[in-house]
What does this fold into?
Amino acid sequence: MPDKVQRVKGVNDILPEEAAKWQALETVIREVMDRFSFGEIRPPIFEKTDLFARGVGEDTDIVSKEMYTFSDMSKSSLTLRPELTAGVVRSYIQNNLQQVSPVQKLWYEGPMFRQERPQKGRYRQFWQFGAEAIGSPNPEQDVEIIALFHTILQKLGIAGSVSLKINSVGDSESRANYRTALQDYLRPRLADLSETSQHRFESNPLRILDSKAPNDKEIIAGAPRILDCLNESSSQHYSQVLKMLDDMGIAYVQDDLLVRGLDYYTHTIFEFTSDALGAQDAICGGGRYNDLVHELGGKETPAIGWASGIERLLLVIDAMQPLETKSTIDCFLVALGDNLREKAPGIVQTWRNGGLSCDFDTLRRSMKAQMREANRQGAAYAAILGEEEYAHGEVQLKNFETGEQTAVAIEKVVSTIKS
Ligand code: AMP
It folds into this structure.
């Protein structure tokens, strides 16, 4: 026997039973996006590598070690998207979306690719859905985008088991102030920091706050706080965001060590986490990125967005409030005898065209085996077609719930079942 080909490490097969849960989740996402007046955008799965190097940041974990990068026939360096904010912004600029309306509210869903060490809730191909509001600098936009994800959680019935952490990294002036203050504090302690943190001291000191190394954590505990370095306007922006969240009854915890792993954030940053997950407890992360549109070649345009991991969200939903899924069919046609088997595809087609979900046997099995298959599929009805019924243009329609069986004209099956 030839060897079986195995799937690549860190990727998943989503089988039909699981896919039904994805669809139920996607229905909720679409409904809420629609209520919030966000339009769907579907950018390509691969982009020029340069987009991520510039957009996400050379020094981030994603760009420095996790990207699936390859060259095509023309020797261009291309990368499977590790996230979608950079792609959405590229598309926004390239398609002049600012001319369509001064605020563009966009959402997306699709697979992302990162070469991370696989574990529960962390995969190399994983799905995200996300939202980006491009064009408004004001705190009400921050609050709307947070309320959008919160509403999705509420509709899924899991808002109570998820917490929102929030922080501000301020504008570029505030961040520069903080960078200096942080470096001044860390400089005399540099030798005690982990190698990764030492490496980040010059290139990206804020990321040191993210370190999980125990010794780093001790040092970080005494570090100056970014909120103390925010300038007047950054501080005001942040307090307005918090006040509006309070007014809307959206609970949050301020976490002044939250910096998030991507370079492009300014002002508000946030993360939703769940206790129902293990080490990988973040189900959504986002923030403001007021400089990114300009850095990628567009006009200065403020923006804010988030992305959420679908697999992780489904793990939380499974633990808290399993989604209702329909995996049954309306009717299974049980055709008896070779002559009638030939009629089965045509008859089932008319019922399907009429709006029923139905199925029939293509393995030429016995009546008993066909009835067993109808049961396995959870059919509400079996439509039994024998020579005598066919001669009268009828089937015997068996209701599995009541056990009743009646003769029904083939063309009346749809209306009978629907009624
Ligand atoms: P990020 O783009 O890193 O801010 O991630 C946003 C969200 O995507 C996280 O909160 C997770 O829910 C999800 N996510 C990120 N990386 C992975 C991964 N490797 N596997 C599964 N989900 C992920």
User: Anything to note?
Assistant: The CA atoms of residues 274 and 395 lie 53 Å apart. The radius of gyration is 28 Å. The pocket of adenosine monophosphate is lined by residues 83, 114, 116, 121-123, 126, 128, 261, 282-285, 307-309, 311-312 (CB under 6 Å).
